[in-house]
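pipeline/complex-builder :: batch 7 item 3
reading input block
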Amino acid sequence: MDKTAMPVTPTAKPRLRLVPLLEPRQRVSDRFNVLVYMASLAVATALSVGLLWLAGVAPSDLGREIATTAFSSPRALGSVLAQTTPLIVAGLATAIAFRSSFWNIGLEGQMILGAIFATAVAVWDIGPESLRLLSMALAACLGGIIWIAGPAYLKLRLQVNEVITTLLLNYVAFNLLLHLLYGPWKDPVSSFPHSAQFEPFERLPQLGWQNLNWGLPLAIILAVVLWWVFSKSRVGYLIDILRSNTTMATAVGVPVLGLSVASILASGAVGGLTGFVISAGVEGRMTQDFFSGYLFSGVLIAFLGRNQPFGVVIVAFLMALLILVGQSLQVFFGVPSALVQLVQGIFIICVAASEFFLTYNMHWRSAV
Amino acid sequence: MDFLLNWLVNIPGFATPFALAAMGLIISERAGVLNLAAEGFMLAGALAGVGLMIVGYSPFVALAGSVLAGVAMSFIFAIMAASLRINHVIAGLALVFFAEALTSYIASAEGWTNQAIKGLQPILLGQDIIVYATPVLCALVVWMLNRTRFGLSLRAVGENPAAADAAGIDVTAMRFMAILLGGALIGLAGGYLTVVVSRIWVDGVIGGRGWIAIALVIFARWHPWRVLVGAVLFGCIEALIPRVAALGVDIPKYFLQMTPYLATLVVMVWAAARGTDRWSQPAALGQHHIREERT
């Protein structure tokens, strides 16, 4: 403010410099949208490949590694698809919440509660054996719903930031899991800290191709259902209105509260289901770290998949590939296991930063 | 009596990282930046501290390195949140994830994981110098925010960026600096956790303390002095956890370890139910400022 009062000396030469002026974009064409998205992926890929090169993996080795991991044999492809399954469900859980602007960062907590509820049904032999698997799945959904209900209530009723509440509940859930696994649910056979092996009828049945189980078709069906809800149904249309302008949505009579509650609880339910898909599908029991890394992957998959169910499926496949390639690089090149996470981190930063180009139109103007 | 003394002596060590991190958060949030990246800055500071100690530097150099690491990490966040005007929630989450990955990668590549370090020695009453410096830093932050032109501009940007812009304050630059300044304190908080408290690096060593600090800021209604009170409260809880068994109370270990997180949730609910946040929260928190076209 003092500066404005300063007398301008006539001898001072006006110095030309360019300053950016930002103008919010009114609308973004699909072409530009895709262009920016691809550019951000290209930058992230280039950075990741460069980083791997520094770590001692030449791009040619990397290419060979990717080809071997995914497409060298049906068996290899089977492993990637098996890894894809829980990632699809995790990505969908996160995408459902993000679509209605609820930042659910509590996926790991919801997965843990889902697994705990499903395991409770298995351990305590609840219900007839023929319905056991279904009861486990439903119990898992219930566990996820219970874990997200608190943050949902606090957000919608008291405007408490859901990022913090959902995230803190992850730590609570993790300690609950450890308590159960080191206490009452310790494996009676080996007394290792994981639950007893599920009975065959408590596990997702095999598909009959490679080591895939019914989790994959289930995940795809879920994606199709969600695609229908989001893109074809009235509810999906209302959610879009809600996301773009809550005030307007209220004014035109959209049941804002009901829709928000439904989406948030659905996100929690699918989060719980992710825990079930891993416990009953992959591990055949509840372990103490089955959930680790899924929060990060789930957010990234939803984010890269633009919260679209089919986008989620595609990105989940690529993420599974990345995870398996990372594992094999760890074995053959001695690259630290955190590398996969770092590549994910690079992608999330690049894609987040690219939002700028979609939101604003930048002009360079000269200023004196 | 022994129990009480033992407990009291340990409180400041646990309270200090909360206080430092929350003060750093206040600086950036008073400038209108919703900072969810604290956990990431703390991880950077924590790893830098351990790494420098292992390489053979003194604790003070290590803590200075933590400060720089916090600034470096907050630089990325500042580019996203202040310059590129990305949604603050997305920018914060992206940064936390990135920081988790980067620190874990560096730690395993350098072999710093699970290596015990010597740590900072106490100077008086069993406390180290950072504990004594924390209230002084707090006073400095209060003075800076309330008594300097810089602080006035910073708060103006957080309350009404359009008016601040019209008054000739560079909103973007101000927010950028607030994030870096906050990042320095948050980085120090992370460094303190590893160099003084845990004296070891394991992945995710911060354990959600960055998020608890965010809740503390809400609890303290964005005032530095009240943050000290909240930090001591949480220090009491954390210092009590390993000592509960000595009291003869039989609570399962893992339920005890939930208490800081549950206490944080209680604090957030209490702060929200009191309903005064709307008035104490910086008015433009989390809002971007775009100057309209001008010629």
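note: Chain B has a mean pLDDT of 87.
queue -> next item
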